[in-house]
Amino acid sequence: METNAVRKISAQSLNRWVAEEKPFILIDTLTGDHFKAIHLPGATHACVFEVSFLDQIAAITMDKHARLVLYGASEKSMDAAVAAEKLAREGFDHLYILDGGINAWRAAGYPVEGESADTPPLPEQLLALRDGIYRVDTDQSRVEWAGHNPNTKHDGTVRIKKGDIVVKNGKPVGTFEIDMNAIENTSLAGDELQPVLISHLKSDDFFFTRRFPTATFTIQSGTPKKEPYVSAPNVDVQGELTLRGVKAGVSFPATVYQAPDGTITAKARLDLDRTHWNIIYGSTRFFEHLGMHLVFDIIHVDVKIVAPKTP
After folding, report:
1. What local confidence, expressed as pLDDT, does residue 122 receive?
2. CB distance 305 to 266 below 8 Å
3. Most distant CA pair in the chain: distance in Å?
4. pLDDT of residue 124
């Protein structure tokens, strides 16, 4: 990004400005934690990701003609460019972006400061799962479902009984057991029809939990995408769901994140055709003249898995 109000400056040129004591304000646009870990000498800080960014700038300077040098993480990262756009819209007219960010400054051999200046934090941009065994935290994990008919939506939860994820060579597999007798409804909370609906869902019209109390999902393969960005669906999951005694294949993208402490969090949205598991109640594929008993075939399922690494 380079306009009349916004220009790029190389690490070498900025270093000359420092040596010449040229007047400018140097602003780190990254997070507060990153600034504490590593920053350019003499830099002040205003995090572009915070809604108070412009207020932070105002605390640094109210002079819209001041020469501001903004820097972010790297050539690829848009942090400083976005900060410059925000400031240009506010009327700041002497804006410079350090080309290549703090990475370019370090690569040129110029000094940095901070608590982790010798070992700067990783960018956490792409997923890189660490090998090991991860046990599902059933209290933090959840499965939410939603079903529809032409006029109504019902939703609720089912409980994960137990599960493990095994990561080998950066690829996850695993097995999860779901307690179908623990199915709950939230859309009719407080209504006298809520227990009627739950009883119907447990009956042989739907999940037949008396005979099939447990559903099982097995991840047969989890393949990270070519560029597995942490903020986007980054793993393609191929698996098999056993429900009501019927096995059927399921595939979907999941968004997986690994926290610094090793805990894996995975989220996914699945649209399941219930008739693949012989749940045909209210389906016009199998019945005629359903009237008020018509139920759409697709069940929407939102899954969140939290799995700390085992010792």
Report:
1. 84
2. yes
3. 86
4. 83
> What are 150's two structure tokens?
């032409």
Q: What is the SS3 string spanning the chain?
A: CCCCCEEEECHHHHHHHHHHCCCCEEEECCCHHHHHHCECCCCEECCCCCCCHHHHHHHHCCCCCCCEEEECCCCCCCHHHHHHHHHHHCCCCCEEEECCHHHHHHHCCCCCECCCCCCCCCCCCECCCCCEEEECCCCCCEEEEEEECCCCEEEEEEEEEEEEEEEECCEEEEEEEEEEEEEEECCCCCCCCHHHHHHHHHCCCCCCCCCCCEEEEEEEEEEECCCCECCCCCEEEEEEEEECCEEEEEEEEEEEEECCCCCEEEEEEEEEEHHHHCCCCCCCCCCCCCHHHCCCCEEEEEEEEEECECC
Q: What is the mean pLDDT of the chain?
A: 96
Measured distance CA(81)–CA(251) in Å, rounded: 38
**CA atoms of 51 and 192, how far apart (whole Å):** 45
Instruction: Provide the CB-side half-sphere exposure for 38 (13 A, CA).
Output: 19
Query: Which token pair is 85?
Result: 């756009």
For residue 2, pLDDT beyond 70 = no
Which pairing describes strands 264-273 and 298-307: parallel, antiparallel, or unpaired?
A: antiparallel
For residues 195-210, average pLDDT: 98
Residues in the chain: 311
pLDDT class for 206, splitting at 50, 70, 90? very high
Q: What is the pLDDT of residues 245-256, one digit of tens each?
A: 999 999 999 999
Token reading at 305:
């898995």
The pLDDT tens digits of the residues spanning 143-169 come to 999 999 999 999 999 999 999 999 999
